[in-house]
Amino acid sequence: MNGTILLTGGTRGLGYATLEALLRADPSRHVILPARNLTAARAVTARLTAKYESKVSGSTNLHLVECDLGDLASIRKAAAEIGELLDQPGIPPLQVLAANAGVQRWREYATTADGFEVTFGTNLLGHYLLVRLLTERMSRPGRIVLVSSSTHWGDFRHTWGMVAAPRWDAAEALARPAESARVASRAAATSAYSTSKLALIYLTHELARRLPEGVDVYSYNPGLIPGTGLAREAPGITMFLSRTVFQSVRLLPGAVGARTSGAELAETLTGPPPAPTGAYLDRSHPIDSSPESYDPDRERQLWLDSAHLVEIEP
What we know:
The chain is an alpha/beta fold. Helices cover 41% and strands 14% of the residues. The chain has helices at residues 13-25, 38-52, 72-86, 118-134, 156-159, 171-175, 186-210, 236-243, 258-270, 296-310, and strands at residues 4-7, 30-35, 61-66, 94-99, 138-147, 215-221, 280-282, 285-287. Strands 3-2-1-4-5-6-7-8 form an eight-stranded mixed sheet, sandwiched between helices. α2 links the parallel β2 and β3. α3 (72-86) packs parallel to α4 and α4 packs parallel to α7 (186-210).
C-alpha cells in the first residue's frame, strides 16, 4: 500500500502512535489528517516533520484538513477539500482510509452540531458520511479500517468493568434518544461508547457487501491502551486515575502500549491483506467478534437509517 492514507484522529493517542509508525517506516508517505483543531494539529505535524523529514522531499507529506466529525457540514466541506487535494499533481491516489477518531462522554448528555447524541453521532455517523463521500476516490486495491473496540462484547472479560455493555436500538433512537433516555450517568455514557463500537462492526459487514471489488474493509480492535487521550473529556478525578492508577491496567491481559498498538495498526493499514474483507481484527489477528455483532438485518437497517440521518442516498 503506497498510496495516500487518510487517518482520522491522527494527532493524539492511538492515531498519533500510528502516524509516527507510518513515518518511521516511510517518511515520504502522503497522509491526510482531518483535524478539528488545526492549531493543535499544526504543532503535532511540525514536531513530526522535524523528526521524520524525508531525505527525498526535505519534509514530511502530511496534509491537514479542517474537519469536525461531529458536524455534517464540516465533513462535507472537508471531503470536497480532500478531493481537491487528491487532484493536485504529485499526490498519490487515496488508497487507505482509517477511521480512528472517537469520543466518549463520561456522564452528562451531549449532542453534535446536528443534534445527534455525541458518541453515536461522531463515532458512527461522522465516519459513515466521510467514508460514503470518499469511497469513489479510492484506488484499487484499497483498504478501509474502522477502529472498533473489544467493549462491544459487553462482558467483564473484555471491559474489566470499566465500560457498560452496548444497548442496541434503531439508529434514530441512538442518534436522537428520547428525553427519558438521556440519563446523565457513567453507565449510560459508557454504554453509548460500546454501542457505537458495535455499530462500527455492523457498518464493516455492510460495507463489505457494498464496496466495489478491490476495496477491502475491516473492523479493528487495538486492544486496551491505558493513558491515551480517550479520557480527555472525563471529570478531573477520572482523568487523574487514567494517568496514574489506571496505568496498572497495562498488567492486565489484552493491555498494550500505544507505541506497540500504533505499529500494529500501521502494519494493518499498509501491509498485505490481513484477512478476507469484512473481518474483525483483534490487533493484527482476524478472529470472530461477539455473537451479537453478526446480524445482517441490523446491518442493512443501520446503513439505510444512517443514510437518512446524514441526508445521503443509501
